[in-house]
Design a protein that fits this description.
Blueprint: H1 2-14, H2 33-49, H3 56-61, H4 68-80, E1 84-90, E2 98-103, H5 117-127, H6 129-143, H7 151-157, E3 159-162, E4 165-168
Antiparallel strand pairs: 1-2, 3-4
């Protein structure tokens, strides 16, 4: 009895899949992950042999199935086997420089020295001028000694304009007119 239920379950699962309207759907073929990644590896190899320089992110973006660590491992394996060499290093917006690989034997480009703190700050300021200006405005407002006033309130409170600042009128000083 138990064996008959199992064989009936197997027969039911072997029946073609159908949607809710009774139409038979096409069978889904699932390619093993290793085979898909091998196909992606081959596509990357062909692109690199055509002369394209690629970094880890470019290899990763070329496949919708692979992970970033897979891309890094592929390039490392090829580099260890001397199939590719490091053509150049490129600094991104932040973090350490990343290597760009080129197909074929060759001498690896030298890794650039790390940026010092001052150089990293200058680079960040160059890449984010809007944020630098915003910060300078905030610092100027914090260092400001005189209040921010409009002309009407300034006159009511006894302030007068002196250059870019409002200063309190000296009430003890009198002006003599000749």
């Amino acid at each position: 009895m138990h064996c008959q239920r199992q064989s009936a379950a197997r027969a039911a699962s072997a029946a073609p899949a159908s949607n809710h309207q009774g139409a038979i759907a096409a069978p889904i073929t699932i390619m093993p992950k290793k085979k898909r990644l091998d196909d992606d590896r081959e596509a990357v190899r062909q692109r690199m042999q055509a002369g394209e320089e690629m970094d880890c992110c470019a290899v990763w973006r070329s496949s919708d199935k692979a992970s970033k660590s897979w891309a890094r491992d592929v390039l490392k394996q090829w580099h260890d086997a001397q199939l590719v060499h490091i053509a150049r290093w490129d600094r991104g917006m932040q973090g350490p420089p990343s290597p760009f690989y080129k197909w074929g034997k060759g001498k690896d480009a030298t890794r650039p020295t790390p940026l010092g703190n001052a150089a990293a700050v200058r680079k960040w300021q160059k890449n984010h001028p809007d944020k630098v200006q915003e910060r300078l405005r905030k610092v100027a407002a914090l260092r400001r000694k005189t209040p921010l006033l409009d002309p009407i309130h300034a006159a009511l409170l006894g302030y007068k304009r002196h250059g870019n600042a409002w200063i309190k009128k000296n009430e003890t000083r009198t002006t003599d007119t000749p």
